[in-house]
Design a protein that fits this description.
Shape: globular
Order of helices and strands: HHHEEEHEHEHHEHEHE
Distance between the termini: 16 Å
Number of strands: 8
Number of helices: 9
Strand order of the largest sheet: 1-2-4-3-5-6
Largest sheet: 6 strands, mixed
Helix content: 25-40%
Length: about 280
């Protein structure tokens, strides 16, 4: 089984959108982000990226039905925004759950609603989740716990919005790629959460380092998993067991994550997944 054609088409559009570097969208104050306050340390103008994505999210919300701030926990960051296709008779639609990047220290779902657009055009319900950040004092395994609880919330609630709880895909960019890989490289956690393994159909991590024993970008080294032992525990590539049946692993040709991505592809393939790189 591989990702359905609408999912693949929408995913390709997402890959074009993410590297691109008004109104009432309320998000974490991006003026405090490390990438914004230290622009000389990065090749990308992250301030412009966040402004553009927030504006695109505003426009998307004017065009598509949506439900904001759906809580899967008690913390303000433990919420997701749900975007629906325009079909008023929606039923059993596939569901894509997206996790934003930001080195686990910055970012918010309100910046990233725009990633839903190519999926909505293909009839796919899209959820964009926030999660607790290291900037607020949260560290591994808080973020993977949040990601799992977001999947659990979708499985238990998405049918009320016209979605198919047995057709969930997860993906993300950068730090979100790590979280989506963590969810999908070994589905054992799903049984403890009361979710059938078959509900998770595929994962689509974009531009992520999957062995966290390597140092990260400026300002984020070791903040996520602040010990040698935790860095190994938090590395999805070291814990591949019973993975999701399908995956697309994407990385930019000028990024530093090709080797990690290629190794993830090889290990997922060896474990029985159908993987495209």
């Amino acid at each position: 089984m591989f990702l359905s054609h609408p999912i693949k088409s929408a995913f390709l559009a997402l890959c074009i959108l993410l590297p691109s570097a008004v109104t009432d969208v309320v998000a974490q104050d991006m003026s405090t982000y490390y990438t914004v306050t230290h622009p000389d340390e990065f090749d990308i103008d992250w301030g412009a990226f966040y402004r553009t994505m927030t504006e695109r999210t505003t426009r998307l919300r004017e065009q598509y039905p949506h439900h904001l701030d759906l809580a899967f926990g008690d913390d303000p960051k433990q919420k997701l925004d749900l975007y629906l296709p325009k079909d008023s008779d929606l039923s059993n639609a596939p569901v894509f759950l997206f996790f934003h990047g930001g080195g686990f220290r910055e970012g918010d779902r309100a910046h990233y609603g725009a990633v839903a657009e190519p999926f909505l055009k293909q009839g796919i319900i899209t959820a964009v989740a926030s999660y607790r950040l290291t900037a607020d004092g949260f560290h591994y395994p808080d973020q993977p716990t949040d990601a799992r609880n977001a999947v659990k919330w979708l499985y238990e609630n998405i049918a009320k919005f016209g979605g198919d709880p047995d057709s969930i895909y997860v993906g993300g960019h950068s730090a979100g790629a790590i979280l989506s890989a963590d969810l999908g490289v070994d589905r054992a956690w799903m049984l403890a959460a009361g979710i059938p393994l078959s509900a998770l159909k595929g994962l689509v991590p974009v531009s992520g380092p999957y062995d966290l024993r390597e140092r990260g970008r400026p300002g984020e080294q070791y903040a996520y998993a602040p010990s040698t032992e935790l860095l190994a525990e938090a590395s999805p590539i070291l814990h591949i067991g019973d993975p999701a049946p399908a995956a697309v692993v994407a990385v930019g040709s000028l990024e530093a994550y090709q080797a990690s991505s290629e190794e993830l592809v090889a290990k997922l393939t060896a474990a029985g997944s159908e993987v495209h790189y």
